[in-house]
Fold this protein.
Amino acid sequence: MKIGTLGAGTIAQAIARHAIRHGHEVVLSNSRGPASLAPLMKDLGGHATAATPAEAAVADLVVLAVGWPQVPDVAAQLQSLDGTVVIDATNQFDSPPPYAKTADLGDLTGSEYVASLLPGARVVKAFNALFAQFIAPDPRHEAGRQVLFLAGDDTDAKNTVMGLASQFGFAPVDLGTLREGGRLIQLGGPLSGLHALKQD
């Protein structure tokens, strides 16, 4: 699978490393341009390339992992994502910790808002509820596999993300729609930051 990342921070890198270990091609992008990613490309090896956000979005699956204030700008740079599976790994922080402020989206969940900016994309909320330092290591532990909560409105898209997460070693748990399930794992939701293992 060809996986593009919008953002190249700790979460995008953690997902990229899992993908590369399992033979996927990864195209990473950020706001500073491909040249700024040269050291990271050297570290990741031959299955990784650097590109612009628009180029990275031409992939089988796209990971959105930028700071919340950057989401509209990134979305505006993209061409049609009609049918593309997009993993929304963002959290609606208007300002980051330690002085965190949550964006007021009214009745919308964060991922419903993201989906409104990416018409045609099949958005799946995932990887946002875990800290990056818990995404990066092998999710398989002696007591079980790290649970990965996800939500989305498209069953096939969720199955794609669940298959990828399972390949990485996670235990994916489908929570339902972006509205119902997304609310459980977004900031302030009861499953946000919950680290659990599934016993196999």
